Amino acid sequence: MPQLDYQTAGESHGPAGIATVTGMPAGVLVDEDFINAELRRRQGGYGRGGRQRIETDRIEILSGVRLGKTIGAPVTMLVRNKDSRLDDLQRTPPVTRPRPGHADLAGSIKWLTTDCRETLERASARETAARTAACALGNCLLRELGIESFGFTRQIGEVATGAIVSPENRAELRSLRDQSDTYCPDPGATERQRDVIRRAKIEKDTAGGILECHIFDCPPGVGSSMDWRTKLDARIAYAVMSIQAFKAVEIGLGVACADRPGSQVHDPIAFDPSQRNTPSLGFVRPSNNAGGTEGGMTNGMPIVVRGTMKPISTLLRGLPSVNLESLQPEDSQYERSDVCAVSAAGVVMEHVVAFEVARAILDKFGGDSLTELRSNYERYLEAARKLAPKS
Asked: Model's pTM, two decimal places?
């Protein structure tokens, strides 16, 4: 069976974004309502720009699905752009003054042109509409196995929430997140985050932040320690860092591990017979500093990932730059953009993390159909429970 994978194509102001998912087993319910709801969430969040009032992102399934379920063939989905003007030179003129922090300068030099337009169109975060659709399909697969994702905004600017996420309160926090226009499960922090974004807009500036994602009910042993390319935490980090404007990724305690001795970092292991029949197999921890992974594999605790998104590089007031045609100093050009897209980026991050977990699940358990996959998954859990006698 081929490895679960996806590709995206399309430009910011092209006619559409296309996502193709390969390696998906047959029989997985393609929940279009769920995928479209996640696309709407990606378009939302306080601080977004005018384009989000133009687009109404929805998937059109072109292949790989029959009667609402995958058939084992590549699944191709299309997300149309209403604002399609790539060939209209009056509306999408050449860009010769690159924006610091964007792909403009590096791409123009790479492709030997003084026009940054083609680079910025493909490098645009508009690509994440198709990517969210593709990765939400991976999330559909996880849901078939009872594995659940939850992503939210941890911080915007200097304002962070201290919310503690647990398997017991995830439903409550999800509800709070969905009531927040910064996607933060903390009403007080939400209002202060809005203030940060409002202040940035007044100052013709932009704001960044930190996103967090949790994956619940994934059993131990998913991923591998035998090859650096199959370490699950590494694959998750790669996926998160590939999201536009992300500059750092942490798993579990992350960089704070450096401040503590090992005795305060590593999570003690205990066994609770009452949880033997859960995906954790009964192995429990009083802390989760490892973020659910050890040695490149899941350890039965929730997977915890944080990503840092820098402020968007398109500022209303511009930044010092150089005109590539004259090589004279000029301020960067303005392209319609957001003041803050942290909330939207959290939706993308949640789904790319979920997709990597789904990929690792299929690597381990295989199967051409969901029926076969589920049977392999359940046999593994049964075999793992037999490693030691019942208490």
From this structure: 0.95
